[in-house]
# Entry
Amino acid sequence: MKKQFKIVGHRGWPEKFPENSLEGALHALKGGIDAIELDVQLTGDAVPIVMHDANLRRTCNFDVAVCHTSYEEIAGISCDEKSRFLFARSEIKIPRLDDFSNQVSKVINGKQQVFVEIKPESLRVHGVSTVFEKVKRAIKPLWPCVVLISFDYDFLAHVKKDGQFAVGWVLTDLSQDELSSANLLIPDFLIADHKKILTDQRLWEGNWQWFLYDIVDKSLAGFWFKQGVDYIETWDFPSLQARE
# Structure
């Protein structure tokens, strides 16, 4: 019987570092976290970068649509999240996914995992096949430890058909329709916002593991672990590391 849940750094370690930054990911992994999660968008010329939003306004203070802008135009922009951090660090740039993967591969141990979320905006612009092939090449140094995740069912079905990576489906509403689709897809992980699940709601049983976000309270994480959740995603992993 498992004695504890696994902790996933949501976009690295954004409590201390800009979200989706290489610096945050490296510090989280060196800090002994079980896994990190990162988000991927493709630029207009189909270069995968580590970025959550389709526009750079929130994290970079630039009104730039990622999927319609070349990588060359984006490369020098800082992702230092000036609105959240008192001291801006202009040297923190938006990571290319291939560079990010190379650097992370140097510090990751054999047990840590990397959950790579593919954002729907890029899939709409570039298509499932193009996005998968570009991302697959960029994450090659991390292949053994990667789980590809997405809200997009068709993308995950494509990845499952390829057969090389574990997949995680990020659920929208936990409806009966989604349960039926999950039973067809049979993802390795079902991923959900814990706020969308009632505390007395029975988690769907199946050949998958449950992964909930975003939790920073240790007692709440422990509650969901007892309900059958294996992975807890958090913005501040040290708050959950002292586990019973």
In short: The longest helix spans residues 128-138. The chain has a mean pLDDT of 94. Residues 6-54+96-241 form a domain with the TIM Barrel fold (CATH 3.20.20.190). The longest strand covers residues 35-42.
